[in-house]
Amino acid sequence: MSNFADRLQRRIDELGNPSCLGLDPLLSYLPESWHKEFDFTKDEDIYLGLKRYCFDLISAAADIIPAIKPQMAYFEQYGSAGIRVLQDIIVQAKSVNMLVILDGKRNDIGSTASAYSDAYLGENSLSADALTVNGYLGSDGIVPFLEKCHKNGKGIFILCRTSNPSAGELQDLKLSDGRLVYEAMADLIAEWGSNLTGEEGISSAGAVVGATWPQQAKALRERIPQSLFLIPGFGAQGGTAANAIAGFDQNGRAAIVNASRSLMLAWKKHGLKHDDFAEALRLEAVAMRDSLREALAL
User: Fold this and answer.
1) Helix/strand/coil (H, E, C) string of the chain?
2) What domains appear along the chain, each with residue ranges and CATH number?
3) How far apart are CA 180 and CA 197, in angstroms?
4) Is the Cα dihedral 177, 180, 185, 188 positive or negative?
5) pLDDT digits (tens, 9 = 90+) for 77-92
6) What is d(CA 174, CA 184) in angstroms, rounded to the nearest whole number?
7) What is the pLDDT of residues 229-278, one digit of tens each?
8) Is 133 in contact with 145 (CB distance < 8 Å)?
9) Backbone Cα Rg of the chain
């Protein structure tokens, strides 16, 4: 079974683009014309509308962007209809050579963590290439995910220094040994991922490090040089290409930058009609790619 970090880095290299399409769909994001075509009080129409929307986004970006990151809560809020869409887009993305990073931030104690790992990193209809997880319960909540990474060639991204404004309330607290909480988490991530390093020299047990904290990202990169970074916060949350590349290694690798709303709602920025959302996403995806390339001097 091939290593997740190898697969992702090689697809990034192939496309020359270290970006990720975040899928956080809301019915309000769908064109107004679709609200006349579908009855969104019915589960079947919710399923059909969201599926069409997500498939159009994937189709527009598949030859530009190497991976998608569906935010699971956005699908779960629509019940069984949303879960069906999530299952379908996992299959669709893989069919067009996009890797799938499920953003669920799952974690719990041993047996429950094992059930989560079976659900999302096993061999079933919700199985993705990687999953975001919360490591703040400690190693017994992480080991089941690491086991699936070893067995099935999967990856995990562990919350380290997140992009939300209040992250520092906990993550910046100083410990008795002088480290900050997020630095201690980074050290654990490096330890947990030490046996998951692939041929590209990158570990499949990576870290979530927000683009809105470039100084911390740079320090973390020096601290955990082999960890794969998932960098959210680009675009709508205020992160720029210059901010985001702080988390890349000295060779401009080992990281992927996620954008969600700035891509899904790009029709507003580009002055296009709502029905042209997929065309606008493609324009914005190219602009994002080029800005990252320029910032990395590729």
Assistant:
1) CCCHHHHHHHHHHHHCCCEEEEECCCHHHCCHHHHHHCCCCCHHHHHHHHHHHHHHHHHHHCCCCCEEEEEHHHHHCCHHHHHHHHHHHHHHHHHCCCEEEEEEEECCCHHHHHHHHHHHHCCCCCCCCEEEECCCCCHHHCHHHHHHHHHHCCEEEEEEECCCCCCHHHHCCECCCCCEHHHHHHHHHHHHCCCCECCCCCEEEEEEECCCCHHHHHHHHHHCCCEEEEECCECCCCECHHHHHHHCCCCCCCEEEEECHHHHCHHHHCCCCHHHHHHHHHHHHHHHHHHHHHHHCC
2) 4-293 (3.20.20.70)
3) 26
4) negative
5) 999 999 999 999 999 9
6) 10
7) 999 987 766 678 888 899 999 999 999 999 999 999 999 999 999 999 99
8) yes
9) 18
Entry field: residues in the chain:
298
Any catalytic annotation for residue 94? no
Beta carbons within 10 angstroms of residue 63's beta carbon: 13
Angle subtended at Cα 73 by Cα 68 and Cα 75, rounded to the nearest 5 degrees: 70
The upper half-sphere exposure of residue 76, i.e. CA atoms within 13 Å in the direction of its Cβ, equals 8
Distance CA 93, CA 99 (A): 7
Q: Which residues fall within 8 angstroms of residue 33, CB to CB, at 6 or more apart?
A: 274, 275
Of 34, 50, 104, residue with least CA distance to 275:
34
Whole-model pTM over 0.70: yes
> Whole-angstrom Cα distance, residue 214 to residue 206?
17
Predicted local distance difference test score (pLDDT) of residue 85 = 98
Number of neighbouring beta carbons within 10 Å of residue 91: 10
Residue 2 has a CB neighbour count (10 Å cut-off) of 10
**Residue among 36, 94, 105, 269 flagged as catalytic:** 105
